[in-house]
């Protein structure tokens, strides 16, 4: 994530401008102009005009635009990689896998399956109702959707919800983070290149002022990915306006290492979960509970592997920089608190003194406990705290001892036992013998419990969340029964009561109903 600085203005009437600098070498990478509420309202008006014609297209035609963007994305992979690295400093490998490959997968998945997911769905009715009515559920687009996206996956986390909302028939107002605006602008450019009608997708550039204006603008839904604190404000705004929202917020994901886990695999998985994207993703592994009988072997393997990780601002690298100066402050605060309270640094533990940018060394901590911020608050950095526990029951109890509930992982060679533990975890999703990969498994609904969010993205739930499920009920008798609705009378009342006693009070009636 770029370093953002306000640019002094010569007049209070001038629009606010922000300068962005690289977290890798601190050099300037561009400027943006903050769009005020008036421009947000104008964008909404354009979207309102464009959306009906867009929704009137068949799902297959809308999906055709996703296919067009997919082809453009594959042709312009290097543009995406270069833009993401310039904005965030993430490693090239992570720019390819997280931003290019995952975006291509999302475009391919929804362009192939949208027609089936959004098709009208007849519903079988129960009892005698099946002889009287028939019901079909139609997916009606909500209208104009506001999507607010974060800085840690600037391309994929903007593209994925936007693609779902668009193919469902909505117009989209997209507000990316002010520190990674260029990735969102790049994929919007790809949609224009694919021929998307004007006004159907618009990118709003700015900081919290622009985001707040979008929430209050009168859109039909807000999809927000970001911090818990901002998510609460978004949720409060939507609740006041009685519009739906999806909130994908923070996490403090636990990893449980059971007595029968494959230690080498678990250690490798812990590193991948903790250090991918420099630990700056919401479902990263932020705390490990390892049963004491295997703790020594696990810690030894983790330390050995973590010590070999490469960090640099040139050439190949395994762990990139911190994307945001404020995040560096949080990481250092959590580290200082942990060390003061007795945590032992086994690897890393400081800013990298050999690099100019915002680099924090990949770190392994032991002797940690829940009195430390590093075990209870979201750190969002390359820190792997490991806590010994007596058994798997204690691991489960501590894993649930959190205000978060986004993802979790369980490592065991006994799938039945691991699944039993998974079902007891207060988490939005659980991965067994893997780092948290739920967001990348598009068929799986992804969302959080507790303070980690409201609603789910991806899967059927994700795309249907951008629709109103409209039941259309048809009377099989073409309304003829309505002729006998009035007048009320005792004879009719007794008939209904008799029918109720038969249908719900006798074995034959219950079978029929």
Could you describe the 3D structure shown?
The protein has 513 residues and is of the alpha/beta class. The chain has two domains: 32-120 and 139-249 and 460-468, 3-Layer(aba) Sandwich (Aldehyde Dehydrogenase, Chain A, domain 1), CATH 3.40.605; 253-442, Aldehyde Dehydrogenase, Chain A, domain 2, CATH 3.40.309.10. It is built from 17 helices and 21 strands. The strands form five sheets. The protein has a seven-stranded mixed sheet, sandwiched between helices. A six-stranded mixed sheet has the order 8-7-6-9-10-19, sandwiched between helices.
Detail the topology: elements first, then pairings.
Elements: E1 3-7, E2 17-21, E3 28-33, H1 37-56, H2 59-75, H3 77-88, H4 92-118, E4 121-123, E5 133-141, E6 144-148, H5 156-167, E7 171-175, H6 181-193, E8 201-203, H7 208-215, E9 221-225, H8 228-241, E10 245-248, E11 253-257, H9 263-275, E12 285-291, H10 292-306, H11 325-340, E13 344-347, E14 363-366, H12 373-376, E15 383-389, H13 392-399, E16 407-411, H14 415-424, E17 429-432, E18 446-447, E19 453-454, E20 456-457, H15 459-464, E21 467-475, H16 490-505, H17 507-512
Parallel strand pairs: 6-7, 6-9, 7-8, 9-10, 11-12, 11-16, 12-15, 14-15, 16-17
Antiparallel strand pairs: 1-2, 2-3, 4-5, 5-21, 10-19, 13-14, 18-20
């Amino acid at each position: 994530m770029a370093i953002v600085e306000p640019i002094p203005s010569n007049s209070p009437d001038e629009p606010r401008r922000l300068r962005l600098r690289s977290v890798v070498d601190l050099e300037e990478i561009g400027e943006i102009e903050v769009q005020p509420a008036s421009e947000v309202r104008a964008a909404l008006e354009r979207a309102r005009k464009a959306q009906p014609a867009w929704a009137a297209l068949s799902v297959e035609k809308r999906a055709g635009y996703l296919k067009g963007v997919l082809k453009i994305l594959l042709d312009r992979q290097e543009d995406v990689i270069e833009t993401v690295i310039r904005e965030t400093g993430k490693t090239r490998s992570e720019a390819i896998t997280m931003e290019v490959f995952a975006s291509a997968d999302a475009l391919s998945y929804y362009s192939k399956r949208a027609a089936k997911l959004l098709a009208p769905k007849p519903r079988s009715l129960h009892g005698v109702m099946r002889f009287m009515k028939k019901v079909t559920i139609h997916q009606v687009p909500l209208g104009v959707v506001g999507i607010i996206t974060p800085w840690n996956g600037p391309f994929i986390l903007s593209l994925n919800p936007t693609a779902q909302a668009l193919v469902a028939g909505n117009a989209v107002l997209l507000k990316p983070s002010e520190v990674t605006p260029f990735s969102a602008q790049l994929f919007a450019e790809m949609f224009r290149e694919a021929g998307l009608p004007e006004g159907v997708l618009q990118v709003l550039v700015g900081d919290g002022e622009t985001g707040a204006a979008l929430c209050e603008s009168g859109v039909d839904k807000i999809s927000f990915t970001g911090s818990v604190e901002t998510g609460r404000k978004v949720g409060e705004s939507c609740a006041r306006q009685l519009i739906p929202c999806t909130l994908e917020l923070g996490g403090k994901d636990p990893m449980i290492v059971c007595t029968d886990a494959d230690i080498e695999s678990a250690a490798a998985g812990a590193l991948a979960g903790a250090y991918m994207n420099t630990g700056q993703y919401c479902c990263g592994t932020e705390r490990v509970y390892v049963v004491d009988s295997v703790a020594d072997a696990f810690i030894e393997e983790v330390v050995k592997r973590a010590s070999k990780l490469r960090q640099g601002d040139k050439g190949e690298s395994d762990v990139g920089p911190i994307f945001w100066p404020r995040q560096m402050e949080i990481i250092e605060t959590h580290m200082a608190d942990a060390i003061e309270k007795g945590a032992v640094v086994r690897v890393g533990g400081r800013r990298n003194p050999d690099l100019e940018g915002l680099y924090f060394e990949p770190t392994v901590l032991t002797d940690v406990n829940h009195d430390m911020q590093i075990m209870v608050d979201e750190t969002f950095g390359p820190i792997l705290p490991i806590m010994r526990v007596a058994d798997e029951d204690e691991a489960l109890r501590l894993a649930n001892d959190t205000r978060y509930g986004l993802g979790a992982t369980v490592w065991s060679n006994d799938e039945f036992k691991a699944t039993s533990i998974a079902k007891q975890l207060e988490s939005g999703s659980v991965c067994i013998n893997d780092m948290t990969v739920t967001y990348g498994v598009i068929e799986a609904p992804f969302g959080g419990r507790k303070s980690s969010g409201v609603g789910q993205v991806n899967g059927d739930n994700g795309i249907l969340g951008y629709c109103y499920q409209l039941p259309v009920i048809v009377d099989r008798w073409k309304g003829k029964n309505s002729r006998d609705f009035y007048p009320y009378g005792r004879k009719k009342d007794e008939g209904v009561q008799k029918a109720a006693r038969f249908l719900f009070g006798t074995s034959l009636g219950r079978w029929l109903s």
